[in-house]
């Protein structure tokens, strides 16, 4: 069988099936950017390879997927970090006009070029750790021009670097000052004007909202979901981060790809997610950075069979984090996830949280050839270390 590249002498964590899909003497073959074989070398067809790479016993995993980020934004919030160190809470700062709205001001003031330039070092940090797909949300523009500028900048990042970008429209992230006291009016504008424009321009792959006391109510969230569904866009939700508004169950009713954060999720929410097949995207970096003390109900999610993804939530307010490896360590140390759950959370289940389980997230024939090749002895090392990067090589689309 002809192929472009054959990686031999590799140990594989294919992440296919339920566990890690470990293969001790494995190989991977790619043609035209797609995996044509991944598995035990003893089962492989005879390949006529244009190029052969001896992996010398290194481990290959699927390229990592960061399925929840706010990577594109203007400015930073190191000043608010100092305020929080002096005792202010995240909610107090937000209610006093800081928080998301302060990043909104910086984002509105930034050109598309400036947004791309400031996001590139963050994207490069992810890429350096073997990340091959990144989801990026809007939500710091909060007017049509700025939200579309953010999404254009996000799409452009996918042309500036060898990485897949999934974009998510998060117009319902915070109430912009123009709509003070009129959250319903803002939601109506999003549903009637802004979202249809964004969808028509092909700028969004999904629609998200922040369902929270300092965000939007379940009724307002549901209006966003209806508008998204009418346009054929899948939904996801920032749910149960600071309180329990039953957003996850609402998201599940709309067949959401994922509900994210979930520290305050209750049993009914878990059951609804399990029934709908909605992924639980956990964000331990945000939990750590805002010094949350209530972890998400991992045992209940596990019992119910809800797929768990892990993501950085890279954003200037609650998670200035650009390491998916550290995120896995936090998932294990802070939330009690196993090594297998952490690795599935940044591969197979992260793909599912983006609605892309058929094309990325595992090492299987027919999927995109996105690989991370690691200088490690055991997969657990990827979760165990803090601040160490054992990436040997990263392959995107077979290159
Ligand atoms: O995912 N919760 C809402 N959105 C972000 C935080 C945004 C911000 O503070 O700038 C989050 O944590
Ligand atoms: Fe977020």
Automatic annotation (TrEMBL):
Essential cofactor(s): Zn(2+); Fe(3+)
Residues holding Fe(3+): 68, 70, 238, 313
Reactions catalysed, as given in the entry: 4-imidazolone-5-propanoate + H2O = N-formimidoyl-L-glutamate
Molecular function GO terms recorded: imidazolonepropionase activity; iron ion binding; zinc ion binding
Subcellular localization, as worded in the UniProt entry: Cytoplasm
Any one GO CC term of the record: cytoplasm
Domain Amidohydrolase residues, every copy: 104-377
InterPro entries: Amidohydro_3, HutI, Metal-dep_hydrolase_composite, Metal_Hydrolase
EC number: 3.5.2.7
Cofactor note: Binds 1 zinc or iron ion per subunit.
Role of this protein: Catalyzes the hydrolytic cleavage of the carbon-nitrogen bond in imidazolone-5-propanoate to yield N-formimidoyl-L-glutamate. It is the third step in the universal histidine degradation pathway.
Protein name: Imidazolonepropionase
Lineage of the species this protein comes from: Bacteria, Pseudomonadati, Pseudomonadota, Alphaproteobacteria, Sphingomonadales
